Amino acid sequence: MIKELIMIANRLDELGLTKEANIIDDIVSKNMNKLAELVGDQHKIDANKDGEITAEDFEMLQENSAAYGKKSCPKCGAENDADAAVCHNCGHLF
Question: How far is 88 from 78, CA to CA, in rounded Å?
Fold first, then answer.
């Protein structure tokens, strides 16, 4: 979301709409910390504890779960049996 807002601000600058671009820049700057924070239970799938949800987190979760006969859903992070074809939480197909 932040990248998209920055792209919009850059495009507004290119079009000469600097006042509008500055408004978006201010919004992004003032809310950067809020936009970057993990919310709800997202911390549970932040396997490397870096404050971001990335492919590395899902790889780590899958490796850990495989050792226990479980696998994590790449969409929602829910633990499923290793032989599950569908996530019991969100319905994602494995």
Answer: 8
CB neighbours (10 Å) of residue 73? 24
pLDDT of residue 65: 67
Kindly state the DSSP code that residue 55 receives in the 8-state scheme. Answer: H
Q: How many residues make up the chain in this entry? A: 94
60 close to 77: Cβ distance less than 8 angstroms: no
pTM of the predicted model over 0.90: no
The pLDDT tens digits of the residues spanning 45-54 come to 888 888 888 8
Residues near 73 by Cβ (< 8 Å), separated by ≥ 6? Answer: 79, 80, 87, 89, 90, 92, 94
Segments making up each domain of the chain, as ranges: 2-36, 42-81
